[in-house]
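Summary of Year 1 activities. Much of the first year was spent building the evaluation harness for sequence design. The harness presents a backbone, in tokenized form, and records the residue chosen at every position. We chose the following record to illustrate the format because it has been used consistently in internal testing since the harness was completed.
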């Protein structure tokens, strides 16, 4: 696992054998950031279920202004700390030791341009997080939520004022892009919906 673009390009990131995390592959990560395009530059990023910090660190490498990484697993937190230190972005990255759902419910002040959701597959965690996020005003007007699920998982139900703007499949991974429906927004890169 490595940083694939930006000022930290090529830096290897640490993970732990047997850790209950499933880092986003370089292929999927590259596709996500290609879709986001210029939305990453100067963005404030929230990485829920941060795992190794892979997505937030990639965003920082590509010019994001700051990142909050939320992770409740102690082993994963240790990996994130190592990766933050190794990449030298400690002044822009803040690790919060907390359950992702608790963080969403307790956060009342911070708003973000990009929110990454990469929870364990198969437990409906992305759906639950999106259901909680829709009640909060933590996404900027042109912000994007990027959620990763297993290919057979569905995000459904009433999620307004959020709406699904695009869905892409990569092997066993499905990536959902959501934005607020109550505001005008910049378009993301063109790519076929699945």
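For this record, the design step produced the sequence shown next.
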């Amino acid at each position: 696992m490595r940083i694939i673009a930006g000022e930290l390009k090529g830096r290897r990131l640490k993970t732990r054998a047997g850790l209950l995390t499933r880092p986003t592959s370089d292929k999927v990560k590259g596709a996500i950031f290609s879709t986001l395009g210029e939305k990453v530059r100067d963005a404030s990023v929230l990485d829920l279920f941060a795992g190794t910090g892979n997505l937030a660190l990639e965003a920082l490498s590509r010019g994001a202004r700051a990142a909050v990484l939320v992770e409740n697993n102690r082993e994963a937190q240790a990996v994130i700390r190592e990766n933050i230190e190794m990449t030298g972005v400690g002044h822009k990255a803040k690790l919060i030791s907390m359950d992702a759902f608790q963080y969403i419910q307790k956060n009342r002040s911070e708003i973000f341009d990009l929110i990454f959701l990469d929870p364990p597959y198969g437990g409906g965690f992305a759906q639950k997080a999106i259901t909680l996020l829709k009640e909060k005003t933590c996404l900027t007007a042109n912000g994007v939520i990027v959620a990763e699920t297993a290919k057979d998982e569905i995000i459904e139900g009433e999620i307004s004022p959020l709406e699904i703007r695009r869905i892409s499949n990569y092997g066993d991974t499905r990536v959902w892009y959501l934005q607020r429906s109550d505001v005008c927004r910049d378009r993301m890169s063109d790519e076929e919906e699945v």
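Residues 21 and 53 are 11 Å apart (CA to CA). Quantitative recovery figures across the full test set are reported in Table 2.
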